## 1
Amino acid sequence: MLPGNEPVRAPYGIEIIESCLSCPYREDRMFCNLPPAPAQALAAITSAAAYPKGATLFVEGQSPRGVFILCNGRAKLSTSSADGRSLILRISEPGEVLGLPATVTGKPYELTADVIEPTQANFISREDFLRFLREHGEAALRVAQQLGETYHSAVAEMRTIGLSHSAGEKLARFLLDLSADHDEGKGEVRLTLTLTHEEIGQMIGTSRETVTRLFAAFKKGQLLQVKGSTVIIKNKAGLEGVVGA
Amino acid sequence: MLPGNEPVRAPYGIEIIESCLSCPYREDRMFCNLPPAPAQALAAITSAAAYPKGATLFVEGQSPRGVFILCNGRAKLSTSSADGRSLILRISEPGEVLGLPATVTGKPYELTADVIEPTQANFISREDFLRFLREHGEAALRVAQQLGETYHSAVAEMRTIGLSHSAGEKLARFLLDLSADHDEGKGEVRLTLTLTHEEIGQMIGTSRETVTRLFAAFKKGQLLQVKGSTVIIKNKAGLEGVVGA
DNA sequence: GTGGCAGCGTGACGGCCATCACAGCCAGGA
DNA sequence: TCCTGGCTGTGATGGCCGTCACGCTGCCAC
């Protein structure tokens, strides 16, 4: 069964896989460690599918069909304006649930979700999902928690975009936010950044060229090194200085 | 009883009122039309208080004490950076629940809530609130819905801040967003805007002077009129044109 | 009345960065 | 092998708007 009442039929071939309820990442996320009954109920309404790079899960403005749970692969959540500019709010990681706010409230999806790596995802239709939540209060609480965290990260991005005077400050904030997740080995932080300069610009609200120039400036100032898609922050304090300035 | 385990003792005198569970606005909001049992349980853990203009309900970074439900009056939700700049995310209206994301997730409050009018609010401590949600699944679902809407409006503000090239575009977007709520009488929209230019600037990420100049420009262009704290949008299409440009 | 203060209006200046334009570079495909 | 297309690097230019500075009004307290 294809996901949704308006199935994503799409130009690209979607290949249905047996189930990815058994995929990794599942354990430590939203609907895990549920008591057996709800877990089973959940499995019954879930359908899995695979999406190629570039596929679109849902589009800003569509009425909500349901939620997608990423098993592996990542997706880009963005919004765009009439004149073609777009703003990336978030890159979703495996285990995250996409389309949750719209599905819960019934308002249109506020963002567009594009898969940026080959991805397997579980789909649950809005109808089924709401019924499930009504019947399993403990799951509703977890949904509320995930929504709270989503909001939290949205506020964090608002801070980097809204509270900076300069583009340099935005980029520094952005990198520091990223590095917050990653480990910190002997003073330097490594992070892999599989985003183009264009996309980074869309995340922090500046142009592609500015991102290029800023990276050059940061490298020149010994703040970081770039090797392919890995960024090594050599001087975290220095970056924090850029933010403070 | 004063609200919270870290009561807001504060320089200003907080005056405890009997209860504002009976206040207006209550009917059409989050915890209304609940079946009798949960409604009663909710009442039992709720304590009411009054706050003068300028009072602070909670501060960004504090660990979450609980939620505040505005009975009347309004509150300003903002975040600020080390150098004193601040960004207002939202002006909350009566009936809204403040501090919900932090209370649900357990992460620190991400925003600061300042009362901007004399306000009555109900307080529920985090502990009580979470217990209540666990015991009453249907309420958890409503919480999820409110969180979804909060997220929705956060995204809307991100759009106005992040997707505009010019400050004029931001202000136009801001006014149009506001006018979306208000009635539209014979081509023109009236809205009351009890914010200073400074505050408007903090909402859209520009300086006070720019807001002043833009209002002047919009008036000159016959797009709107300002009388005291009421703004009359004379030419909505024109404003939309500013956004499109 | 009068001082003080918060908010608004307006000019001048300068810096930042978006934009345009073009040149290398690399990967992948014909 | 060369071509093609996406990505990155870099210069030149110009405009927007942040910032500083100052004056104005209206309001409240004393």
## 2
Amino acid sequence: MLDLAFIREHPELIKEVAQRRHAEVDVDALLAVDAELRATRRQAEDLRAEQNRLNKDMRAAGKDKALREQLIERGRALAAELKTLEPAERELEARLRELWLLVPNIPDATVPEGTSEEDNVEAHRWGTPREFGFEPVDHATLMRSAGMLDLERGVRVAGSRSYVLKGDAVLLEIGLLQFALERVTAHGFTPLSVPAMAKEFCFFGNGQFPRGREQTYALPEDELYLVGTAEVAITGMHSGEILREQDLPIKYVAWSPCFRREAGTYGKDTRGIFRVHQFEKIEQYVICRADHDESVRWHEELLRNAEDLVQALELPYRVVNICVGDLGDAKVKGYDVETWIPSDGRYRETHSDSYFHDFQARRADVRYRDAEGTVRYVHTLNNTALASTRTIIALIENHQQPDGTVRVPEALRPYVGGRETLGTPWR
RNA sequence: GGAAGGGUCGCAUAGUCAGGUCUAGUGCGGCGGUUUGCUAAACCGCUACAGGGGCAACCCUGUCGGGGGUUCGAAUCCCCCCCCUUCCGCCA
């Protein structure tokens, strides 16, 4: 959410940004409602001020019956006027909020122009896709043959895009999560295990709602939703707080299951477990002072942390700078780490590194008091450390061996009981 | 799920029964000052957030868990909801 005063002062900029980001929002209607609300509110405030003065007169009137009657008469008139203004005020507030929530963030000048994924700009690469001396297979084939995956029974239990990990795949999943958690913790991040269900305000706060509603699982009986990322819960955690500057930056590394409806993706990525409704993720999250340069520094550092993990897993990857048309509404700028997937013959998204300035902080109401005593909204950032299924795919496909087993990169071995290979030989 | 007790401006509490002097009192903590060789103590002052207005000093409005209602007027009375604590039930 942007500062309302900023929107008032830069309506043309907002319109232009909204268009580049494919975000539909009626800025003129927003400004009209805003003006009307301020006028209405002012009228109501004047009436309330008179009401308060009247209240004092009433006290001073003591036992003077005639005067009291006269004051009560005036009070009745005020109350009647307010009774018509107040519903209008509330109605305007609701309409303003609705429009306001649709206004996207302002992208950074270093965000590339473009309309879709195709226009993302490669920043750099690491590693080289491996030359296999045999016919490599995709992860689904390998995992099923090696006793690590049961898709059919997963679908029986929970429908399409569901899966059951088996045998060494479970060891691998848990090992990867622990590996990522420990490695990021070593950089001074505080580990968290957060609720996978959250109230609606967390989703509004994080920027998932209102636009991303159809991607979220709802539990209407309990007025809860399943989080698509730990980020939602973390943003909600500090909602309404005024933090102390000396406690910043707050650096979290959070584990949570992630649930995604994947609405509108029928027929996309249907092989294996690339696009699924549920996976496990370790997420990095930073809350820092309201300073652009500091946000940028953390953005780069979160990227380095993610790259460190992918490098330790010996997986080739590239980093792309997300173009404005492909960037989520709430983000100022974003990098994706895309890891090489041999069966696809291309790099595919495994991490998403973003900063938001105070966009999430305004929505979720997370502030801090700076050295001068001024209360400001914090800046927030987050980046994937490790997402279970996509990392499993990359690791299995890149490190597969001729006999159908998978070589475990050295850095990961302590987390899988010292094993050097996973899966049973099947060819 | 059932019962009882709670939720007040950082923390702890008063106020709610009897609506108006609550512009929400007090203690602690924090900040600034006086005194002081230094520290402590003592004393004095300040100590929420949001919105609006004003060049400014400052002024106005709202917020006592949230929402609605009664009333000229609600921290206080009524209704609904949320959260916390304790006990019971159920339970990984």
## 3
Amino acid sequence: MILIDYKSRKPIYEQIIDNIKSLIVSGVLQRDEQLPSVRQLAQELAINPNTIQKAYAELERQGVLYSLKGRGSFVGSSLQELRTVQQKELLGQLSDLSAELCSLQVPQQEVCAVVQQVYAEAKEGTAHD
Amino acid sequence: MILIDYKSRKPIYEQIIDNIKSLIVSGVLQRDEQLPSVRQLAQELAINPNTIQKAYAELERQGVLYSLKGRGSFVGSSLQELRTVQQKELLGQLSDLSAELCSLQVPQQEVCAVVQQVYAEAKEGTAHD
DNA sequence: TTATATGTATTATTTCAAATAGTACACTTA
DNA sequence: TAAGTGTACTATTTGAAATAATACATATAA
């Protein structure tokens, strides 16, 4: 469900944040659904509970989940809400990347060709769902 | 010439690497041109010479520069060579980013629209050169 | 009520990469 | 010869991340 790459430059708690967001955006976790407890997830991933707590606290700060003392932690964002946020974030990254490609003299049509190919391959892969 | 962001998550020596590559790709530094010495650049940027040495060593490993003991360090890559390498790297990033955008259900046409806008703005900015 | 689970908070310690500090040596050039 | 190069080496410092160990308030099921 959640995979940690210990060799990554990205801190573990950030990987957990990204991972949980992905699960929500992909529909695996739904609004108000309960998340694994801090201690349980820590045991599953074999990492320190404080690291999970740090990830959950940040997710709560972002409104992606909410926590009830004694009860547990729950998804606080709908698929659509979070997807919109993520989309804007990625489009911002795309804008930066496009500017770099432009300054490196990569033709616009070549950029769009890459995009098109990725989308075509994705469509190919999901054709038989 | 070279700017360091001390708040960045990216290590200083990596920022130096990226910075020098940019200077080559933008034509500021030309093939076989001499780079600032390890000690000189360290003084300019007010950082430790060992950090510069680490950046230079990595750049030499990548073939971007070459060093002659007692002489100095020099640009080892042509603008075209390095530009080609950089282009491939960025196109790889674009591929990854497109896949994410696709999985987030962002329409392909919207992606290309962003690309187009960035290119249009760049053209606008360089129209009066 | 009791026991167990939950979130939350706190302090101390460890770990590790990055950066610094200092020195030394071989080479080139003016 | 003197000053400037690259290069190598060891030691130390720094700071974020992660771990370790408790503690406390709350909720829930037995």
